[in-house]
Amino acid sequence: MLFQRRKPLDLILETAEKRSLKRQLGAFDLTMLGIGAVIGTGIFVLTAVAANKAGPGMMYSFVIAGTVCALTALIYSEIAAMVPVSGSAYTYSYAVLGEIIAWMVGWALILEYAVAAGAVSVGWSGYANGFLATHGMGLPAALTAGPFDTIMMPDGVVAKGSFNLIAFLLALLVTWLLTIGTSKSAKVTAVLVMIKIAALAAFVMLAFPAVKTANFSPMLPNGWGTPLSGVGVLGAAASIFFAYVGFDAVSTAAEETKNPNRNIPIGLIGSLAVCTVFYLLVAYTAVGAMGAQPGGALSQSKEPLAFVLRNIGWPRIGDLVAGAAILALPSVVLMMMFGQTRILFTMSRDGLMPAAFSKVHPKYHTPHVVTWITGIFVALFAAMFPVSELADISNAGTLFAFFMVAAGVMVLRRTEPTRARPFRTPLIWVVGPLALAGCLLLFFSLGWNPTIKFFCVWAIIGLAVYFLFARSRSHLAPGRTVIHGGPKLEPDPLVQEGPNAGP
Known about the structure:
It is a single chain. This protein is mainly alpha-helical. The chain has one domain (9-17, 25-153, 160-473): Amino acid/polyamine transporter I, CATH 1.20.1740.10. The protein is 64% helix and 1% strand. A two-stranded antiparallel ribbon has the order 1-2.
């Protein structure tokens, strides 16, 4: 039957049982990990996107998106603690909801990771191009944005771009780094986290004195918004959901956490609470200092935080904030692409993707084929599309995957109530339905055109690929041998789960 193919949970756990990880992370460690994972392109870049959709009301948007993330994170941590293996939501869905749902989740995760990597690349290029321009080394305007993006010319005229060269080159550079597996020190990662936090703190302290009450009126120029409209407070919340993605780095550390029943919820809620406060402070000071009406100067900026500082008399600090984004954000591209290649690798080992996707480089011990395929697509996304559309498309895939994980956890509570759960979601029959409703609300608030329309087309293509290719080649297909092993990846020293995982 269509929904009867499931990969037994005990079989999946065999992988985890072979691992011997020391429980050494406390509540503070998890909170810091989560803060570093969440703060990224979302706040550095999407502040402008939120301003264009909701105006000053974007402050409400950060609270709504953060609340949905908090609910989802509590659910996500239960299954992550039960199944601490690779594959993310795809693996969880395979165990609980069956192969076809797992395939669709894996297919949607391509939008989450690959498109998110493109979005971060575009966000980074905005700061890099702005930094170069202020030092007399700017590229021609046509090479700073893609053909589906716009550029604000010095004379105030809005023009179309042609090819985002810096975003394209960054994606290819990260692909090469992932392929060769060059080591990246955890100390460097921690330093990058502190750079991001210091940049946001400096922004708030310097912009706060410039806040003017008049800049908050009207507070809701586009209202609260309605589903499918893609504008207003809800539309902005759906877009800046991207600013919170990465919190799952906390839940995936469950196997290495001391007293996970206590420390995981503290780490999840603590990191999301700190990030939400940071985001609200940044949004308040940006709006109050410059104004944030749709179509205004802030909403059109490719580097909104640096733009605000330069315009209120702190050009040097604005350059430093831009420099912080330039230094810290490429590691986020790396984490997104790393996650994408590992999910495709896992799907290939299950027979659902071409076998070439699980080929491992004989020297570097990395999945080089799928890494380059992913990298080329990410580079093309980044070269052609604006960050707002890429972030929204990525959010569509993420929200779909989170919805399925929440549904799967509730199903598992019914089907296997006695299975050991290192962490149990509190009030699951309240938190679960609220998480499902929140994911649906934000999904439909993304707007029909182009985001939801694109997602629907992507889902139809995914179903076609499943029935024409993947279903018959699956290791769970009748007459095929289930492969438990397959090529193994050595621990990749290039990427360490931790502080810079999110967008």
